[in-house]
User: Which sequence fits this backbone?
């Protein structure tokens, strides 16, 4: 029979039962309210957060690293990112259960983890919390800048080709502030779930069109370098990590009332 020991470790005579009991202990079902997200709504937001312009920039990453070296490094980086993301989620729920909290953010996960460590580092929990906040702010600011440039580029190209309206890119960026700020003013994610679903469908349709053109104009792999130049490897890492921009978004999972279904969808997504 599984049980939780004094230090929070799950003990069981069966590994499978231990894992099931651990998930039941760490991911209890929450009370549903007017602003709660269903697992399906949270999944739509998760897909929208993880699939962005970073995915479209992956060909540039392979240009920097080479075809085969880029493929090997891609598998390694994806495995590391996936493992670390799941580790953070489980650590957050463990800290919530240990401290009697319902939700917790990234920074406080870092602080609680540091304060649970050895004495020489546990006294620096607040410093690491603020360091994480600053790092996430800089990361998200850079991602948002890329998104504005990406949207302005595409809108400018469309209007320059199909209309008589010719505006500089900086003007399009300013005009984009109006709808972007309006959307960001919506506080409840369940109201945005239908738009996230529509955006996912449009995005996946665009990716399918791109893949069609890629495969119909595919060149032999021998035309591409197997290993790129060493000096371009940092650019490869930066481009690939940009594809994981959804890692640092606000935790929609904290608003889900049935976490088990979301976990199942997340495993399918993985």
Assistant:
């Amino acid at each position: 029979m599984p049980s939780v020991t004094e230090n929070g470790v799950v003990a069981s005579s069966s590994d499978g039962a231990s894992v099931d009991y651990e998930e039941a202990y760490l991911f209890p079902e929450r009370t549903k309210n007017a602003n709660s997200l269903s697992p399906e709504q949270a999944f739509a937001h998760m897909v929208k957060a993880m699939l962005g312009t970073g995915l479209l920039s992956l060909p540039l990453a392979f240009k920097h690293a080479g075809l085969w070296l880029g493929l090997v490094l891609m598998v390694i980086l994806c495995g590391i990112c996936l493992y670390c993301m799941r580790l953070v989620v489980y650590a957050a729920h463990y800290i919530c259960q240990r401290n009697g909290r319902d939700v917790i953010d990234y920074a406080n996960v870092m602080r609680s983890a540091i304060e649970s460590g050895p004495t020489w580092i546990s006294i620096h929990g607040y410093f690491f919390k603020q360091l994480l906040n600053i790092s996430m702010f800089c990361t998200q600011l850079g991602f948002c800048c890329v998104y504005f440039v990406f949207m302005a580029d595409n809108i400018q190209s469309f209007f320059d080709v199909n209309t008589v309206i010719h505006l500089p890119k900086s003007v399009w960026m300013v005009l984009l502030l109006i709808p972007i700020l309006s959307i960001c003013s919506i506080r409840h994610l369940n109201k945005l779930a239908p738009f996230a679903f529509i955006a996912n469908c449009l995005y996946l349709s665009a990716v399918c069109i791109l893949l069609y053109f890629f495969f119909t104009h595919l060149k032999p792999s021998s035309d591409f370098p197997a290993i790129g130049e060493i000096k371009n490897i940092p650019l490869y890492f930066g481009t690939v990590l940009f594809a994981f921009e959804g890692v640092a978004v606000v935790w929609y999972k904290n608003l889900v009332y049935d976490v088990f279904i979301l976990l199942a969808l997340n495993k399918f997504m993985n």
Observations:
- The longest strand covers residues 3-4.
- The chain has a mean pLDDT of 77.
- The CA atoms of residues 176 and 198 lie 19 Å apart.
- Strands lie at 3-4, 10-11.
